[in-house]
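lol ok so funny story. i was supposed to be doing the assay writeup but got distracted and ended up predicting the structure for this chain instead. priorities right. anyway since i did it might as well share w the group, maybe its usefull for someone
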Amino acid sequence: MFVAPRRSQARQVRTPSDQPSAPSSDTEVPVWDLPTRLFHWALVLAVSVTLGTGLFGMPQRLNLHLLAGGSVAVLLVFRLIWGLVGPAASRFSTALASPRRVLDRLRRADTATYLGHNPLAGAVLFGLLGLLGLLVVTGLVSLGGEEQRGPLAASLSWTTGRRAHGLHELLAWGVIGAVVLHLGGMLIESLHLRENLPAAMVTGLRRRPDAGAVELPALRPRRTLGAVAFVALVLLGGAWLASTWGTAPSGWSSLDEHPDQALFEAECGSCHTLYHPSLLAADEWTLVMQTLDEHFGEDASLMPEPAERITALLIEHGNGTWDTEAANELRGQQDPAEPMAVTSNRWWAEHHRDLEEAALASPDVRSPGNCEACHLDAVQGRFGGHRIDVPRSAQP
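and the output, tada:
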C-alpha cells in the first residue's frame, strides 16, 4: 500500500507502545519507536564486528566473528517480525515503493518530505536487509563445509563450503557498498532538509514538517504478537542449533575407533611427532612405508606384519579420502623433490611463511613439523584456523 502526498500537516499515531520519547516542543514529532532504534544501533555494532573480523581479522578471531554473525541473524529475525507488526514508520508496507517512485526520488522528481522512509531509503533498507540475510546463509554454509563446524557440517562438502566462502566475501563487500549508499543518502537528505537525521535515530524525534509532507498511516503496533513470534522463532532456531552443532562433520572420522590406531601411535609416535594420515596422499604414504630403512636419515624398519597394517591405515585415511580443509588444500601440492615431507608442500609453505625460523626453533615448537605445538586439533586431523594458538616463545 502506497501513500500519496497530501496537502496537510504530517501526523503520527501516538499510542502508549509507540512513543519514542516526549517531544521537546511542538516543533518535533515522534517517529522512530524504541525497539527500532535499539535494533538499528545493535545492528550497526554487530555488522561492524562481523565485517571487521571477517575481512580483516585472523582465523583465530572466528569465534568472535560467529558471535557477531549470530547476533546479526537474531536481529534480522526481529526486524522481519517488527516490519510486519510494528508501528507505522517501522512497517515494511510504508517503506515499500514501486521502481518508478524510487527512480523519481533518485532523479529528484519527487522532493516531498517523508517522516518515515522515502522511496529511495526504503529501497536501500530492503537491499541491505536482503544482503545481510544472504550473508548469514552463506556464512552458515561456509562454516559447515569449509570449517566443518555448525549445524550444516554433517551434510556439506568442503568444496561447497569453499564456494560459499567466495560468495560470502563478495556479499560482505556488497554490504559495505550498501552502507556507504545509506550514509551518503542520509547525508544528502540531512543537508537537503536541514535536519540531523542520524540524531532522529537516537531520540526518535523528527522536526515537524511543513504542509505537503507525506503522512504515515494510522497503524497500531501489535507488540504481543511480535514478541510471541520473535521468541518462538529464536527458540526454534536455538533448538535446531543445539541438536546439530555437535554432529560429526562430513568427510571426517575419528581414528580412535580404528583397530590399528594404537599400533600406529606406538610404532610411529614413539620416535617423532605423529602426523595425521590426511596430511599425505596414499601414494606418498606408500613411499614412506617402503623406505623406512632410510627414513629421513634413520633406519625405522618394521616387521612386515605391523608395517602392512600401518600402511593400510595410512592409505585408508590419506588426504584423498578426507574432506577437511587441510586434506583438500595439501592434495596435489607436494614438492616432487621431497614427496614425503609435509613441510615441503607448497600450500603448507604459503600458510607458514610468516613464522620466522627462530620461532619454529623456539623451545615450545622445536621444528616446523611439530604441528601439535600450534594446532590444538592436529591429533584429530581437523587443523581448523580457529584452533591455532602459537606459543608465546614463538611469537615475535
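Residues 255-394 form one domain. The chain is about 50% helix and 0% strand.
back to the writeup now i swear
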